[in-house]
Fold this protein.
Amino acid sequence: MVTIEYFGPSKDFTNKSIESIQITSLLQLYEYLEIQYTKEFSEYVKENCGITVDYEYIDKELGVEFNEGDEICIIPPVSSG
Amino acid sequence: MSKSAVKKDAIKVFLTSSKLDPTEGIDFVKCEEAGAVIMFGGTTRNSFEDKKVSDLSYEAHEKLACRSLERIALEALDKFSDDGKDTLIHKVYLAHRLGHVPVKEESVLVVLSSTHRQEGWKAAEWVLEKIKAEAEIWKKENYNDGTSSWKENENSSVHKKN
């Protein structure tokens, strides 16, 4: 299982800030988000959001594999200030 | 003291749910070698397009946001030095408020001291734009009609990060 934390506007899609799910890759994450929420949200994460694994940003272009216990964060476009 | 330890003493960055205090920032950055103190405060405006804004609310990924603020502050010390010879930016103080920020109150403070005013102005603007592009903080505008809207900064670059 991995933990997914949702921040900012991404929580409007999920109505939750955190969950644990059984996935092992970035591709599976996108599939999960599409099935569980909407295709729109999966596309939003893929195209617009940063994704961190254990607090380090990943390169979404690469085929990323997740390990048991990984903490994943969905980082939408930011708006400080 | 190592160079990196000295640099870390020259910066103060934090997130808080309390009201921001520009005077604290100014007092932190003032030093004998500096001829200029630059202070920017981003404050809540009462309108967005034709809608009346009641307040702004902010949330953050605190660990990532603090790390970003620290990185930006340290980069400012180096970037605006005189080819590494003279220290031109002496101290940097960055603070961002979380939770509700009423109209006229500051959500973000960028305060720094510089040898001369030229590099001070440039560095402060650069720092603010970097914060707005990279700090893992999100703003929601809350309107008088009871609706609200998440914002996105035009220069947000988190989706390109790796």
Summary: The longest strand of chain B covers residues 51-60.
